[in-house]
Amino acid sequence: MTASGLEPFATWIEDLIRRRGYDIDSPRGGGKSRLADEAGVHRAAITRLLQRQSMPDLETTRRLAHVLDVPVRDMLIRSGRLTEDDLPLPRTPEAGSAAVPAERRLTLEEAAAGLGVPADQREMFIRVAGQFLPPEPARRHAPMARD
């Protein structure tokens, strides 16, 4: 990531943060701290990004994507870490095709197979890729079990 690549990403994410209701402009607005707390990241990472000093690491990027309700794919592409060719979207099947229907998301197993991940590496691929998916709605708000 070059310094010139940081500027467009920081500008984009700054606008996104504002649109999501975080007051990052006034010193006492608390938006940076609130965003950092909700994402579970250090406030300094948010400050460094907004001051165009450094790009957030992969884990911070992933956490920010979830809090800001943006696909991790978009964050990685906009940050310049990966390209659209690196992260292609699943193709929409043509009529009569046996491919996965467009209204259903691929499973990680299907993605691994479709990407040609060797069988002996698929379990690792699924574990790693699964970390980038948002929690399932049923688990996101499920009450904690009691003894």
TrEMBL record:
SMART domains for this protein: HTH_XRE
Domain of life: Bacteria
PROSITE patterns: HTH_CROC1
Domain HTH cro/C1-type: 35-75
MF-aspect GO terms: DNA binding
The name this protein goes by in its record: Helix-turn-helix transcriptional regulator
Organism expressing this protein natively: Streptomyces qinzhouensis
